[in-house]
Amino acid sequence: MTGMSERADPVLEHLVYLSLASPGLSTVDVRSILGSAQVKNRRRDVTGLLLYSGRHFVQVLEGRALELDDLVGVLQRDERHASLQVLTRHPIRHRRFGSWAMGYVESLDDADALERLFEAGTPDATQVNAILERAARRA
């Protein structure tokens, strides 16, 4: 995708959050979330990737700290999911997920891997990042 920043920018941050999808959330709802996120994230210069297991969301977001703060606030108020938990947040020099305003990968393998992590409790950041990296290579 064009228009997303690939430059080094010391004020960029990388954030990964987990959340529980609301009961009855459909594939159409997820596609609606994705479409809206792509438009809004372009305006905010936020990039990332969304994974949905059918029960849980895992999303990586990269952008300026203030934009991520605002976006997390919006996400916390969104009734299409609950129990939002920021798993990791740290400064970065370069975007890893800079090719997408919001990428989305539909993969049963990733969904199964995510659900196995959630069954064991709160997923480990290293394991979640490995799933995100694998999904990014396929996107």
Task: Give a written overview of the molecule.
With 139 residues, this protein is α+β, with helices and mostly antiparallel strands. The chain has one domain (12-138): 2-Layer Sandwich (Alpha-Beta Plaits), CATH 3.30.70.100. The chain contains 4 helices and 5 strands, in the order βαββαββαα. Strands 4-1-3-2-5 form a 5-stranded mixed beta sheet, with helices on both faces. A hairpin with a 3-residue loop joins strand 2 (47-52) and strand 3. Helix 3 (108-119) runs antiparallel to helix 4. It is globular and about 35 Å long.
Count of discrete structural domains: 1
| Order of H and E elements | EHEEHEEHH
Q: Which stretches are poorly predicted, pLDDT < 50 over at least 5 residues?
A: 1-9
What's the total helix number?
A: 4
Could you tell me how far the N terminus lies from the C terminus, measured between alpha carbons in angstroms?
Answer: 12 Å
Read across the widest sheet, the strand sequence of neighbours is: 4-1-3-2-5
Kindly identify the CATH topology. Alpha-Beta Plaits
Structural class designation: alpha+beta
Major sheet: size, sense and barrel closure? Answer: 5 strands, mixed
CATH C-level category: Alpha Beta
The CATH architecture classification is 2-Layer Sandwich
Q: Radius of gyration in whole Å, from Cα?
A: 14 Å
What's the rounded overall pLDDT mean?
84
Query: What best-fitting shape do the alpha-carbon axes yield?
Result: globular
Strand percentage: 25-35%
* Amount of helix: 40-55%
Number of strands: 5
